[in-house]
Amino acid sequence: MSEQLKFIVEQLNREPFKKNFNLITFDSLEPIQLLQTLNDVLAEIDSKQAIDIREEMPDQTAKRMFTLLGLLKYKPSGGLTDASSFRQGLVTGSKPVIHPILHWLLQRVPELKKRAYLARFLVKLDVPGEFLTDDVISDTYHQYEELVEGFKTYHKECEQLRNSGFSTAEIRRDIAAMEEEKDQLIKRVERLRKRVESVSNHQRMLELARQLRVEKEREESLAHQKQEQKNQLFQAEQRLQRCQIQLKDLRQAAADAKPESLVKRLEEEIKFNSYMVSDKLPKELERMRRKVRYLQKVASEPAMGHAELAELEEKIKQLSQANQEMEKKMTRTDPMDDNLTLYRQQASIIARKKEAKAEEVQESREELAAVSREVSSKSSQARGQGGVEIIRTDEFKRYVSKMRGKNITYKKKRQEIAELKSEFGILQRTEEILRQRHTAEQQQLQSLEAQKGISGFSETQEELERVSAIKSELDELKGRTLDDMSEMVKKLNSAIADKKTALSPLIKELRPLRQQCQELAQEYEEKKAQYDTCAAGLESNRSKLEQEVRVLREETAQEENRYHYINSMKEIIDIQMQRAADEMKVYVSSDPQTQKKSIREQYMKNIAEQESLGKKLREQQKQVKESHGPNMRQVRMWKDLEQLLECKKQCYLRAQSQASIGQVIQDSGEDRLVL
Questions:
Q1: What tens digit of pLDDT does each residue of 79-103 get?
Q2: Which parts form a coiled-coil structure per UniProt (predicted)?
């Protein structure tokens, strides 16, 4: 406890409180001062709490503090059992209640500030259900909920940005670095442009280079489109294979299944759904209604004391004993009832098993639906990220056989690559020899051009020939690419036509099954609509009941707070009445020693002492008033005498100094000449 008090005093003496407490002064605070200190700490957390509690009713102060502490999620150390004592201690300013609250608040002020700030926007208003039936109020409430959700989103984004580590200084540095790189690139382009402008016929060369770059970009885009079309073709082949496998499975299922089995399966499903709608769900609804009625009854009844609880427990024991005695009598009297009891037990066991199986079936259906949704989401996510869907066993076997064939082809190609590499080495050596010869001939040609005065002609001619060759190759490549694409489109169209002809009989077989599926789906939608309407009605009733229970709980809490406040005020008044009764006993008592101890006698004694003291002071005042005039005259006379003596002294000194100039003064037998 001493450590707790030290921490509280230390925190209260710091910013922003600056209370200048020590352990003695803090421990000797009155309850109203202690409550004001707690209110100041709460005002630092939430600015709306900055109120002087002397100007506020005690019940309003207690309610305001209860509300804020509930929003801040403060839990008393005693738990729910000491809730009433906690409320009473907070109302009366009890130290064992206030000190732990201050210690808890001062430990986590920044966190609680944030929580109080968020509570202003995230704690929703409770609007009664009957008001929400109005369209205007309902629309306004929906807009309010949307604004609350928007605030959550923006607050999360703000926190993420604060914790992400991005800073404006780093972004500015990056922008400055990019600006520098941009300037460097502009300067480099200018230098290259000046260098090119010195070359003859540079405009044509730049145009050819631009066309070459455009053609290369077009070539890359065509290659990318070709690769995408290959991927799409591969995915279409995979989908076709899967559709074929599914069609095969459906044929096998259709061959094995008969209309009777399908009808039987549908009848079982209808029975299960009818059991859920007519038997299980009404029982659960009735159980929930009974529970709500019981809770309403409990909330409407006044709070019970220990005596009433003990009486109820005694009644419960008596009723349970009477019930056991009745069951024993029934088992002893009639043997037919024993058989009926056995049948009833068996029927109840079967009903419980039926309910358990129905719950298992419902859970299995929900689990199957969840797994199917998860599988579909994972497959769509894999397709979105460019992945491949999961294949089955037959597909995997075909994939393995295909990979074996590819492995054989790979070995052959690897052998061909080895042969090509050896041939490449020979060709590379030949190229080096030819390049050496070419350089020698080029040097000889340059010397001849220099002699004739046409230096650079051969290089320009070679450059033009090279550009024209590249252009012709690109044109040829474009022609081949377009031919390949047209052939591929023809092949795809022919393959699609073949697949359509192969699938046409299967489609004819699927038409009646599809019609039957549509009929069943329509019936399922009708049943589902009925179920949804029933569920919606039950949900609306449940929400209304929950709203009513919430309102009743709030009223109960308010009444309980009011009860504790009145109880505490009653205790204070009882104590005052007891003190008044004790004073009357002492006052009426015949013992003089006892009467001297009474508060009245003490007050009378103090009054007598104060009266005597006042009488003495009045006499002194009278004497001072009587002697004030003569004393003031005497003071003035002394001041005048002092001024007169000072004036005589000045006159004497002035006369002495004037008389002593140029005179002979005899002093004790000696003559002195004063100049």
A1: 544 667 777 777 777 888 888 888 8
A2: 168-253, 309-374, 403-451, 510-562
What integer is the mean pLDDT of 253-259? 62
Computed from CA positions of residues 572, 578, 579, 580, in that sequence, does the dihedral angle turn out positive or negative? positive
Question: Is the pLDDT score of 336 beyond 50?
Answer: no
DSSP line for 261-310 = HHHHHHHHHHHHHHHIIIIIHHHHHHHHHHHHHHHHHHHHSPPP-HHHHH
User: Are the C-beta atoms of residues 104 and 74 closer than 8 Å to each other?
Assistant: yes
Counting residues of the chain whose pLDDT is more than 70, the rounded percentage is 82
Encode 211-222: b = buried (16+ Cβ within 10 Å), e = exposed: eeeebeeeeeee
Residue 34 CB coordination number (10 Å)? 19
End-to-end Cα spacing for the chain: 93
> What b/e string do you get for 105-133 counting C-beta neighbours within 10 Å, with b at 16 or more?
bbeeeeebeebbeebeeeeeeeeeeeebe
DSSP per residue over 15-26, as a string?
Answer: TTT-----HHHH
Within 10 angstroms of residue 601's Cβ, the number of other Cβ atoms is 15
DSSP assignment letter at 667: E
Cis before 259 (ω within 30): no
Q: What is the pTM (predicted TM-score) of this model? A: 0.29
Are 44 and 17 a contacting pair, CB within 8 Å? yes
- Tens of pLDDT, residues 149-185: 888 888 888 777 777 655 667 778 888 888 888 888 8
The Cα angle at residue 420 between residues 417 and 423, in degrees rounded to 5: 155
Residue 366: CB atoms within 10 A of its CB come to 10
